[in-house]
Structures are given as C-alpha cells and as structure tokens.
C-alpha cells in the first residue's frame, strides 16, 4: 500500500467528523470523495481497500482506464464534461457533478434513453460561482433556466449544486464563495420548489470551511493520496 495512504484517509475522516460536529451537524451527512486524479488504478484501489467508498475523477478517459482495476465504489465525475465524452462517462460514473449547460443535459438525456432503458443518472449543476473566465460552470444568473431544463429531463435526477471557488492560500478566502453557493441553492429552492439537498464544495485545503458553510460532499485528493508527481 502507498506509504501512509490509509493513515491519511483516516486522518481526513477524523477532520471531516470534527468539522461537522463543530457546527452541530451529523458527520454521516457528509460524503467524503477521494479524488485519485493522476494516480494509477492500483493506488486508487488501495484507497478503496482502506475504506474509501466514493471516488472522484476529473477526466473521463482516465476513469475509463482505471475503473476495471478498482474494487466497487461510487464514481463521481468532478471535472468538465465534453459532449463527445458523455457516452464514455455514462459507462463509468454513478453521479456527474458538472452539468453546466443545456447541451450537456440534453446529450445525457438522449444517451440514457437510447442505450440505458430504465436508468436514471444522479447529477449536480456546476456553478461558476466567481464568474472566472477560465473555469467551467454555469453563470449564477443562468442557473434557474438550467435547473428548470434539467428537471424536464426525465432521465436526470438533480440533487444540488457544485462549485470550485478561486484559489487562495488562505482557506478562509473560500468562505464567502461557499456562502454564495449556499445562498444560490436556497434561492433556487424558493423560486422553483425543487429540493437541492447536496452542495459539493471544498477540497483538501478548505474542506473544513466548506463543511461549516453547508457542504454535503467534499472532494479531497492531496490530503488522502499525497502530493501528485
């Protein structure tokens, strides 16, 4: 097993539990997603053996190559989804965090209806919470239209929102962006009347802040797997 992986995973779980209890939340309501980006299947499989139940990947093709060598887990797509990768994504992922435009929703809907009769896909809407030109995600002002459209796709089950705040060395700098995503979720629930219980936000350096601000899914890579080569 990769040196220290099981210990790091246990340490992160303890930090998740402590962060939840510090804000009077049940730790069981927080899903820890172990992000194995760039690490080979053998290392990701070690994380599953050590107790990881949810795995995150940024790139569809990387996940396609890895999944056959990894024990059973729930696979989360947390990176941008291109239209031409949608079918491959459906072969691998149980939940897609990055539905950010109408055409992606329509493509997933079509493929599910055409090739997976009876299957429904859990999704989150990715929001470009700070309107950063280099990042994927729907603009905040377009989210109502996107949500209504996805709700009309009977093969997609939308559970909440996902965002990646601007990078900053100080984890506290992420707090206002997490608050903004939570506020957007609350507004959408009021406007459209559909519950959005999941908030996917927070990574290795700021997941405790994210939990304090309402995250239900945290995406942790380096703190579990160690530095990437």
Going by CATH, what is the homologous superfamily?
Answer: Alanine racemase
Order of helices and strands: HEHEHEHEHEHEHEHEH
Form type: globular
Report low-confidence residues grouped into runs of 5 or more: none
Computed CA radius of gyration, to the nearest angstrom: 17 Å
Compact overview of the structure:
With 229 residues, the protein is of the alpha/beta class. The protein has helices spanning 5-22, 41-49, 60-66, 86-92, 102-115, 143-151, 175-192, 207-212, 222-225; strands at 31-35, 54-57, 74-77, 95-99, 121-127, 156-163, 198-200, 217-220.
Defining traits:
229 residues; alpha/beta; TIM Barrel; 9 helices; 8 strands; 40% helix
